[in-house]
Amino acid sequence: MSSEFGRFYTCTYSLVPSSRAQIKEWNKATRSAKESSRD
Questions:
Q1: CA-CA distance, 19 to 5, in Å (whole number)?
Q2: Which pick of 6, 15, 16, 35 has the fewest CB atoms within 10 Å?
Q3: What string of H, E and C letters represents the secondary structure of the chain?
Q4: What is the distance between the alpha carbons of residues 27 and 21, in angstroms, rounded to a whole number?
């Protein structure tokens, strides 16, 4: 993970409501984003 993406992710993540379901969705979205960028 690049530091730029890490900063963006941390900044965005802090704006997201900290509900368990939301966090789970974010984890899923991040995983699929990483996998598609790997291609």
A1: 22
A2: 15
A3: CCHHHHHHHHHHHHHCCCCHHHHHHHHHHHHHHHHHHHC
A4: 10
Contact 25, 13 (CB under 8 A): no
Structure tokens given for 14: 């802090």
Q: How far apart are CA 23 and CA 13, in angstroms?
A: 9
Of the candidates 7, 2, 26, which has an alpha carbon nearest to the alpha carbon of residue 16?
26
pTM for this model (two decimals): 0.37
Confidence bin at 5 (pLDDT 50/70/90): confident
